[in-house]
User: Fold these one by one.
Assistant:
Number 1:
Amino acid sequence: MLITSPAFKQNAHEALADAQLQKAMGHVRSGFIDKRSHAVEALPEFDALRDSARAIKDHTLANLDLYLTAYEEKVLAAGGKVHWAETAAEARGIVLDICRMHDAKTVAKGKSMITEEIELNDFLEASGIRPVETDLGEYIIQLRGEHPSHIIAPAVHLNKEQVEADFRRVHTDLPPERDLSDPASLLGEARRVLRQKYFEADIGITGANFLVAETGSSIIVTNEGNGDLSQILPRVHVVIASIEKVVPTLEDAAQILRVLARSATGQEMSVYTTVSTGPRRPNDPDGPDEYHVILLDNGRSSMLGTEFQEMLRCIRCGACMNHCPVYHAVGGHAYGWVYPGPMGAVLTPSLIGVDKAGHLPNASTFCGRCESVCPMKIPLPKMMRHWREREWERGLNPTAARTGLKFWAWFARRPALYHLATWLAFPLLAVAGGRKRRFGFLPLAGGWVRHRDMPAPQGRTFMQQWRDRDALKQGSPL
Amino acid sequence: MSAREAILGKVRKALDASGNAGRLDNVWDRLMEAPAGIIPTRAQLDPEARVELFCRMATQAAATVARVAGEEVVPAAVTAYLRARNLPAKVRMGGDRRLKAMPWVNERTLQVRHGPSDGDDEASVSHAAAAIAETGTLALFSGKDNPTTLNFLPDHHIVVVDAADIGGDLESVMRLARARYGKGEMPRTLNFITGPSRSGDIEQKLLLGAHGPRALHIIVVDG
Ligand code: SF4
């Protein structure tokens, strides 16, 4: 996947002018926020559960090596196989080996962000293996050759007319006069088309919401049931998960499950929470003959022990982007890589480098809504600030920004001069603002004034007013 | 160096985990004791109120629920469900002993097939191991007599659960799993099911029947 994060500004610009996208993004604003808040209100223990969930992940991360090896031992004991991968390329290689071993032609995939991260689909296709996305949203964007624009609602940037056009383009064996005008008919068609694919697939690949050290289980949480069909019908089930997905016990998973669905879709519990352990047992009438887990690092271990460690608590619920005004305005693709919104603004620089993704932590108004809704209480704004500092230290900001800030800093450190300058400039600017008292043009700020005017300063400066206020408080006349 | 050693090495270094001997004890204790954490008070009820809460929550998740007086009337309840929805009088089920003990022969018109689903079944019948009042959730363990395909392939999934097996919280199922399979052991699949399959992927409109069953019907058996 081409990383377009360095072009965030251009991406955002285009997104704002994209009428289809802007219409579709309305569904995010109206859909997710109310549902979440109702679910949260209905559970008095919600906030206590957030603290509990955070403590579980903090404890696990502090002992990650031990929990990973405990988990591995249990997977092996249940008859599964564990593969470790340091990089995306290693993980892809392991998947390919498994496919080759079984002479696989088709792979059915449950929804998984980690396989997006390692760009598995392109790789499999290039190796002559057909990956079939089975989650409705993922299926739609696979038909379009796109990437998810949201971590739990991958096709949220599309309207139903676009989906209809794609289905007509691809499902050419179906009668052209069929009615596909409402979402239900689109869903029905996808269901019929994909049903066959599960049976054809030699291998099923899913991600994992949790890995449980106590039992060696992987857990997926879904609503459609495609992740289940993908893992019970093919002969081989491959789980790809990053190392921070591990939790100690089933009870710990239960604590986090209680905040996950509510934060994501506002459900009390998602429709299917599936705990999978090893391959089918000798007498089982169905289920996969083989069970593989690929444990992927891909940059996580480098976040441990740094100011970004807390980001590893993320359970990919999507609440931060659902509540983010910047995400609402530009959608997920503008972020230019796999993970959008506030969690992407923190995670993407960690995984692909702040030199490429430096714009993302800057694309924030610091309104703080993401942190206030994050079920894992991840201090997202604070970490975006850390990235800004690192970017500054490494001299990665554009020259104009650096020069401007340096100039301002020079002034700010000389208060007498600063006050004199503002005292002199204020009345001049007030006059320059003209009768409308606004500027429609400002040097160096063309982008800003293109969409709004800058009000001209009126009256006295802030510092002057502050002094007056102090004087009033002390009761002395002006 | 293997990828395994490399990753674990990086993790240990980042955690500065060398001289900390107490860690292993902590981790071991946690794995052994599995402390419960915060349990919502919502479902800490007496048995009858728990069953009522279960029915209410399952209905809220778009399942349909029927309460019947005893095992012997379950086959009639299944037939009634199929008839009310104009479905063919055919079901697929596993060999679960509680289902087997029911008088299916009384339903003359009902055709019962056994074993996993091949994808052509319109309706299946499963027996849940347990249920959870807190969220209206069913818990089904896979095994010789409980094929997992029955939970996902048919359009209509009919699940029988004993009222006595309805617990308050998610943790009650974790305890059951330990009692049944042993500490740290699990069957191949444990399915928690809350309502019928759905998707909101097109314009965030919630539609039932995505890939799994379009309808989930729960028969709660009292007595
Ligand atoms: S950062 Fe928090 S809110 Fe955002 S996806 Fe992760 S867990 Fe959810």
Note: The two ends of chain B are 62 Å apart (CA to CA).
Number 2:
Amino acid sequence: MSRSARSLVALFTLGWALLLAAADMNYDLRPVRIATDTWVLTGLSEDFSFKNGGNIVNTGFIVTPAGVLVIDSGPSRAYGEQLRRAIARITDKPVVMVLNTHHHPDHFLGNQAFAPDTLAALPDTIHGIHSEGGSFNENMYRLIGDWMAGTEVLAPAKPVTPGPMELGGHKLELIALKGHTGADLAIFDRSTGVLFAGDLVFHDRAPTTPHANIPAWQASLDRLDTLGFQVLVPGHGPVTLDAGPIRQTRAWLTWLDKALRQAAEDGLDMTEALAIDLPAEFRRLAVVEAEYRRSVGQLFPAYELKALSRSGRPAQ
Amino acid sequence: MIKPHALAAASLMLACSLALAAPKGETQNDPLGSHNWSYMRKDLFPANARVVFDERVKVSAPLTAENPMNVPVSVDAAALPGVTEVLVFADLNPIARIVRFAPTGAHPGLGFRIKLQQSSPVRAAARTADGTWHVGGTWVNTTGGGCTLPSAGSASPEWQKRLGEVSSRVWERKEGGERIRLRIIHPEDTGLAAGIPAFYIQPLDLADAQGKPLMHIEGFEPLSENPVFTVDIPAARASTGYQVSGRDNNGNAISATIEK
Ligand SMILES: [Zn+2]
């Protein structure tokens, strides 16, 4: 293709995507009731794109007589506002608390739609939003364009205290974990048996690892597995009634950890590590090729450093 | 401060200013369709040199690189006979030259990582004994920013204490010969981030235990912070150990033995 033809195509694609977004910035959010008082909005198992507006994440809410608890606010101000309206179509109770499970952009950039004093998160999540939120926000503008109109970083002011929390008769357990990021909040509703696992659990979609600590993540999965939940809401991918997504996430992390360690120990260059064949059992996970590539970029240097530290002493 | 490139750059400029017509038979049809190719051709190669596109020069890099500070690239020109030197460059980088290497005993290939400012072709031009430059390459898409960001090292005095420290390891290769991987602690600042001057490794020489040269590497600004290199040694040149020596543009020495 000639240079001008290439630029034309690029321009056309960009224009088309902007047009689509501008014409219809509707996330078409439809809350699904998964248990008593409990609703989930399931995102697409895709990467961020101009087409999906960043609606790749699961958000949810619990309606109680004392008000509504919202779990994650979505990827943009528009998403947050549409989530708020979707809640208002179901209940006239006010939103009394919005929990951000962790500091990744698709979980907190809808915060502006809610009253600032309702926003809460683990202290390290609040810290992460303050320190990295700005660059996440900029990056989201690049990835989903006009869907981000008016979106700014609004970090929760209220730190969450892990432990039991009662809200309108719901006996909730706020569980402070880590591994997907430095602070991952899981919310377990003992009254309904619903576990909101945040991004500690992915289902039929390859996990993302920009802030991952795999051993810590594995330990967190073990903990979630012992809770005795009836319904599992992963951070990404469909809701289930069993621990399948926990096993799936654990299996992927176990493989990833082993494959990258082995690659580094075998002396592979990063380009060779990128070329490793993914086992058949993982190839059916959505966006697995792209997530593997990103994970190599994020995690391989640390394995490599370990493998290289064995010998090679500076000369005297 | 030593600037070994000043002379080479001056002679290259002189060659370019002569603006000789490209010799007959030179392919002008860039397989990567980059509008900057003609500038690369003019800036990086003498006007009278023969420059051809050649798929035998393989450049491996991810099609999409999410982290523009650390894009892995491997070059392999072993399908060409008699490679004397290889120049790696990215057409659309503010500093196009990335690394130049001369395999004086090592396999004619190199693995390393680069900073990219925007999506760009990443190319390797391998010069064969007859003087012809054979150019292979691949596009890398990235959201960019890699060249104008300061290194993590520049912000941390702690790292400066370990400047030039080398970690390395040698592997036996199944296909015969050995592989050396080494990592050098260095910020590799491009000079394009506000207030942070260019600070990067320039010559780097890899030799066997007897000091016989295996590979000469010339680094430029776009090599990634704490650069990691992968070099393969053919069985005939495998050694009981290796040594690496070099310096950065501020004259700081790099020197280490690589033990098995
Ligand atoms: Zn996440």
Note: Residues 31-259 of chain B form a domain with the Immunoglobulin-like fold (CATH 2.60.40.2470).
